[in-house]
Design brief:
The protein has 300 residues and is α+β, with helices and mostly antiparallel strands. It has two domains: 151 residues, Fructose-1,6-Bisphosphatase, subunit A, domain 1 (Fructose-1,6-Bisphosphatase, Chain A, domain 1, 2-Layer Sandwich); 123 residues, D-Maltodextrin-Binding Protein, domain 2, CATH 3.40.190. The protein is built from eight helices and 14 strands. The chain has a seven-stranded mixed beta sheet, sandwiched between helices. A five-stranded mixed beta sheet has the order 11-10-12-14-13, sandwiched between helices. α1 packs antiparallel against α2 and α6 packs parallel to α7. It is globular and about 50 Å long. GO terms for molecular function: inositol monophosphate 1-phosphatase activity; metal ion binding. Keywords: Hydrolase, Magnesium, Metal-binding. This is Inositol-1-monophosphatase.
Amino acid sequence: MPASEDHKEYLKHALHIARTAGQTILAAFNTRSSLHIDLKNDNDADLVTQVDRSVEAAIFSYLRAQYPSHRFVGEEGTAASGDTNTGIVANDETPTWVVDPVDGTTNFVHGFPFVAVSIAVVIRGTPVVGVVYNPIMNEMFQGLLNGGSSMNDIALPLPPVRPLKSLASALVATEYGSDRGSEVLDAKFAALRDVVGSPARGVRSLGSASLTMCYVARGALDAYWEAGVHAWDVAGATVILREAGGLVSNWSKPDSSAAEPYDICARNVVCVRKTAEELHAKAILESIRTTLRPVGYTRD
């Protein structure tokens, strides 16, 4: 089935406003000494700046002018309202724009260049358009349901597609997240110990869920898992990675043997890049799944 013409139009606008937002982020990144930094819920590991807020406002102002009947969900607006329920449901036909204005705020504050604006369109709970743009490194990732994905207009995954028969030759990624409660950290460290002890070749933490998934899509990382992610962290990168031939799933395995849906509001993700044989990717995904301990997060 070819990509929808409506979706192509959404992508055009997403790319335009991502570029515009990227200019603001890059300028602020280069003058960080003037940043005003706030803590979310008095958590030193969960930061927000005036750049996050102003970029989100600018993105939604532009998109609402194009599509006044659509729905809009953004990280900063959701956090400010105190209601974490995004309202994204599987039976809603209304296009919903899901935005993280600065994914990697802590990186941004510290000058670590893994920072991105993430924009997605979600219909019936499924991301159909995704744009993830890192203006610091000038990497523009885009994906369109049934239309492929690319980085700087080069099709993903970037060649060559290396063999990947097991975790023993895999470079994997995960994150610790902003919740530093002992129960959460114990579950995450246990999974990390089991995966690395499998053994995996190496582990990385980039500090940006959307960029990490895009690096899986391009083939620079082989797999990634995390609990605590929000819909705005993963929605854009989900369509990019899937259109690059990768697998994107939740931590729990569905009862059905049919193709797995991915619930972007479930607060977790596990994904594997495209491999020469899909069975290898599925085997690696399942081997990671077996190490994951349940971590209780409220749904988006």
